[in-house]
């Protein structure tokens, strides 16, 4: 199905649907969590889409930045999104708050590469929360936006913490996460 966009595999008809679901050449969906955006397009068009359709997303330059999530006490499910640009690539930083069970809320923080799965293997990210005598650190390879935030959460490829931990590191309801991107 994606031969016109670069896929050169020839598969038996029974293997085709499974491959098409993960094919690197299928259109990219809008990676912005928490929105009902139906945009689809090429990898090259993702950043342009984000800059024009999701203007509230801030982009910071550099390998080391601070991702500030404001008002973490907002009720219900909330997503904070920011972009980080370094090593000639763009990374989407996401902090997601959602209710897991019976009022128990959890926070999920992850980094996605605006790129392919193969490109994502070339990078590592580190998320750090700092507080008085406390430090919480997570290091991993970013997921590709082809996989998305939900796959990162489902595969536990993210920093996970509860509301009590968030308050331990928060300052007046704002949570600063140090984000460092490095090349492998």
Automatic annotation (TrEMBL):
Keyword Cell cycle tagged: no
GO cellular component: cytoplasm
Keyword list, A-Z: Ligase, Metal-binding, Transferase, Ubl conjugation pathway, Zinc, Zinc-finger
Annotated metabolic or biological route of this protein: Protein modification; protein ubiquitination
One GO molecular-function entry: zinc ion binding
SUPFAM superfamilies in the record: TRAF domain-like
One Pfam family cited in the UniProt record for this chain: Sina_TRAF
Catalysed reactions listed for this entry: S-ubiquitinyl-[E2 ubiquitin-conjugating enzyme]-L-cysteine + [acceptor protein]-L-lysine = [E2 ubiquitin-conjugating enzyme]-L-cysteine + N(6)-ubiquitinyl-[acceptor protein]-L-lysine
EC number(s) stated in the UniProt entry for this protein: 2.3.2.27
Domain SIAH-type intervals: 1-55
GO biological process, one term: protein ubiquitination
UniProt cross-references to PANTHER family, sorted A to Z: E3 UBIQUITIN-PROTEIN LIGASE SIAH2
Described purpose of this protein according to its UniProt entry: E3 ubiquitin-protein ligase that mediates ubiquitination and subsequent proteasomal degradation of target proteins. E3 ubiquitin ligases accept ubiquitin from an E2 ubiquitin-conjugating enzyme in the form of a thioester and then directly transfers the ubiquitin to targeted substrates.
Domain notes: The RING-type zinc finger domain is essential for ubiquitin ligase activity.
Family: Belongs to the SINA (Seven in absentia) family.
Annotated protein name in UniProt: E3 ubiquitin-protein ligase
Organism: Neodrepanis coruscans (wattled asity)
Taxonomic lineage from the root: Eukaryota, Metazoa, Chordata, Craniata, Vertebrata
């Amino acid at each position: 199905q994606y031969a016109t966009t670069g896929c050169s595999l020839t598969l038996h008809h029974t293997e085709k649907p499974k491959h098409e679901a993960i094919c690197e050449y299928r259109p990219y969906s809008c990676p912005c969590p928490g929105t009902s955006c139906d945009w689809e397009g090429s990898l090259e068009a993702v950043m342009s889409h984000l800059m024009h359709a999701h203007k509230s997303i801030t982009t910071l330059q550099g390998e080391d930045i601070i991702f500030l999530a404001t008002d973490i006490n907002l009720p219900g499910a909330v997503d904070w999104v920011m972009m980080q640009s370094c090593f000639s690539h763009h990374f989407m930083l996401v902090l997601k708050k959602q209710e897991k069970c019976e009022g128990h809320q959890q926070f999920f923080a992850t980094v996605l590469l605006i790129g392919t799965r193969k490109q994502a293997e070339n990078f590592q990210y580190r998320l750090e929360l700092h507080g008085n005598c406390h430090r919480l650190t997570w290091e991993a390879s970013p997921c590709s936006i082809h996989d998305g935030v939900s796959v990162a959460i489902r595969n536990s490829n993210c920093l996970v913490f509860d509301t009590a931990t968030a308050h331990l590191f928060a300052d007046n309801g704002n949570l600063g996460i140090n984000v460092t991107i490095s090349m492998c």
